[in-house]
Amino acid sequence: MSVQTQTASRAASHAAVGAGAQPILDVRSVYKRFGGVEALKGISLQLYPGEVVALAGDNGAGKSTLIKTISGVHQADEGEILFAGERVSFATPEAARAHGIETIYQDLALADNLSIGANIFLGREPVKKVLGLFPVLDRGAMAKAAQETMAMLDFHVNRLDAPVGRFSGGQRQAVAIGRAIYWNARVLIMDEPTAALGVPEQRKVVSLIKTLKAQGRAIIFISHNLQDIFAVSDRIVVMRRGALAGERRIEDTNHDEVVKLMVGG
């Protein structure tokens, strides 16, 4: 894609989001190398509040490297990343989370034997003191957080205190999303959130993403499922062999064009 085409595409996206809007995330000409392999070749991407940008491409296109560079797993060799207009360089995923960037990977990183509340606070459990002396887990605070967070997602299960290992795939995805928004995520990166789910569960996840969008959260949505991409996304960014193959607004493209961009046809 030429520089002129990239500029025009980003300008169109800016206009669609709203005049004067500032991207919450602005990735500028980022390169990442692993030895002699150039995994990212000058990738640029903008993401606005309340927008869903899909990231598509075949295996090896560089999608995982890009999201790991955004989220602090890798550091860029060249280029820059701006968050809310401020240049950032995250040394760790914890640093990215502290800024409000949460990544939900396919494995969800949930503890199956624990409740929703316990998973929300995993590693950050609230404590209270008994008789002013002995610290114990504040299970009441955890249960309240679970109830309020799940209500924000219009998510309902019979027992909030049940182990999440008993939940369906879509319900587990909701718990992972709930954990992210409880900790005030402003940008969510979702890696194949509908993979290995049945059609009803896929629809539930798509509904959750629409709820997040309505709340003004910005989402990078990685998926091989073009039907889901077209259902929830505002824009699609296609990568091929570490480079930007194309960027389109959803209403201006179709499945065939996206596939051609992915394979280079």
Structural account:
The protein has 265 residues and is an alpha/beta fold. The chain has a domain of 176 residues: P-loop containing nucleotide triphosphate hydrolases (Rossmann fold). The protein contains 9 helices and 12 strands. A 6-stranded mixed sheet has the order 6-9-10-3-11-12, sandwiched between helices. The protein has a 4-stranded antiparallel sheet with strand order 2-1-4-5, with helices on one face. The chain has a two-stranded antiparallel ribbon with strand order 7-8. One of its GO terms (molecular function) is ATP binding. Belongs to the ABC transporter superfamily. InterPro entries: AAA+_ATPase (IPR003593), ABC_carbohydrate_import_ATPase (IPR050107), ABC_transporter-like_ATP-bd (IPR003439), ABC_transporter-like_CS (IPR017871), P-loop_NTPase (IPR027417). Pfam families: ABC_tran.
